[in-house]
């Protein structure tokens, strides 16, 4: 029984010796037949008698005559080659971790394909082989293995010569998996025949010569991430079994859908680990911008690594590289599906599924873990966290496990050695840091300096705001513990005249809930490009989905306006599609969304039916206006002659306009070095009426 190779270097040494024996035999054979001039050294000498020797050698080929010296080398080569093959077989049976042998088995290379690879690869081990190749080829410009040498060294019979072109065809394993690369013999492209093309190993294969444990090709480090081994995660058993079964089928695409951070990649890694496989996560954003030829080369290199590493290729976050309409797959994904013989997985963050025709689709959706699971995730990520604190965090933030782990790691990283372990307040801030960065592109964070006592609103509005606070705090308990059906989130419409306190009330709600509030920048959300508005809205709602922030849509009628029944153009059709998508997305949103409008009649009725609360801010009464004047005008700046009751009765101003009037009067008073007087306020207010086209100060200012 042959002994397995103990390590990669011993095997490499024998392969090199085998190549040298074969080359030596061909050189000696050429000497004895006169086809290689012993005196020519490296440079070929093409004299008439040299050409005649070629004719004689061709005649001898048919007579099958060989010199005895060459025959001795041939015998040694054949015997040594047999010994190497036996040790290789024993090594493979023993499952020794030798990368080159693992490559031969993974790609199912034939004996001639393996020989082709080794003859191309060994000059990287011993540069002196290049000189031997040049001498054997009788070509001073030879820089390594080419088609002529390959025909001499490997495909050396008329019967096997036909296999040469087949084994170097684009779809053959050596070329399709980018184990070998070919190039023209010269920069000008002369001698473009296969026999004159240089054949060299891919850089990836050269990296495997040292025998180190296989890892991702360094040239692919920015394109892919390799994950392997057993990992721990909390998922429904049915979802894990479903994913594992799909990854066992070679002909399907497994699509795992769910918001960012919910654990789609972790689930896939756990499913693949059942079959002893890993994942090769592909970053499609770094591929789609490349030219088609470069994309093809990248995909083949990625599939080569997937084969070597026994990994399932996963196109992560595929919706980030889809066309704006979100339907057609990028070309590189279509190529991957066509060329890979095995399961493929994709992960999707948003709700729109791409169109898949190439393979059967297995679709799996991951939902936010329930309250008990979220509590367990917090305890696992922060073992020092008390059970009540973990439950409080789980109730407050409906976040996936990935965000929990990220927040725990961020809190731990910011802790000094002398500091106590992370507590609930620290972890709350860490959750915000993990999630806010995804909202800041589409919204602006508002300050929350006011509370309920700062509001000047009627009793109905105040009662509605109090009820909204209670609803947001208790909604998860009611949904999960009592089983009450309906929307998981709370959507609220604030309507009324400008300046009556809609935005201020929104900030008060956020403060009472202990949440940050972001005003959505509609100029960043709405896009003229087809599908882009929906994509932005999806990103926005996904980022706010855990309920860690309040979303405020000011002037919402521009985004949530009525749909038109009289569709006369594509613009009307796409506007209706955007409104329909917004309607669906708002209904599924799990947090608190506040919409404000000055024109309640402009809001689509379908939206109004789905609002949990529809709060109308009435125009302030004289008593409310008097209180607004007293609160807004600083005592230190106002004169004694101001009659707030008269101001409230005479001028019908909302709280927003009262604030503007006080500010403008303060600027003038400070410039003149006086206090704010009754007359100064009167002139300021009258000017505000005139600026808005009012001929008198009668009636409300709008």
Could you give a short description of this structure?
This protein has 702 residues and is α/β, with parallel strands linked by helices. The chain is 49% helix and 10% strand.
- Total strands: the figure is 14
Uncertain residue ranges: none
How many domains comprise the coordinates?
Answer: 5
Number of helices: 28
- State the helical fraction: 40-55%
Q: What is the CA–CA distance across the termini?
A: 98 Å
Strand adjacency order, main sheet: 3-5-6-7-4-8
Strand content: 5-15%
Question: What Rg, in angstroms, do the CA atoms define?
Answer: 38 Å
| Helix and strand composition category | alpha/beta
Largest sheet: 6 strands, mixed
Query: What is the overall shape?
Result: elongated
Rounded mean pLDDT is 84
Describe it.
The chain has 702 residues and is an alpha/beta fold. The protein folds into five domains: 8-207, no CATH class; 218-365, P-loop containing nucleotide triphosphate hydrolases (Rossmann fold, 3-Layer(aba) Sandwich); 371-430, no CATH class; 452-617, Rossmann fold (3-Layer(aba) Sandwich), CATH 3.40.50; 622-691, Helicase, Ruva Protein, domain 3 (Orthogonal Bundle). The chain is 49% helix and 10% strand. It contains 28 helices and 14 strands. The strands form three sheets. A six-stranded mixed β-sheet has the order 3-5-6-7-4-8, with helices on both faces. Strands 9-11-12-13-10-14 form a six-stranded mixed β-sheet. Strands 1-2 form a two-stranded antiparallel sheet. Helix 15 (371-381) runs parallel beside helix 17 (401-413) and helix 22 runs parallel beside helix 23 (570-588). The longest helix is centred in the first third of the chain and has 26 residues, at 8-33. The radius of gyration is 38 Å and the shape is elongated. The model has no long low-confidence stretch (mean pLDDT 84).
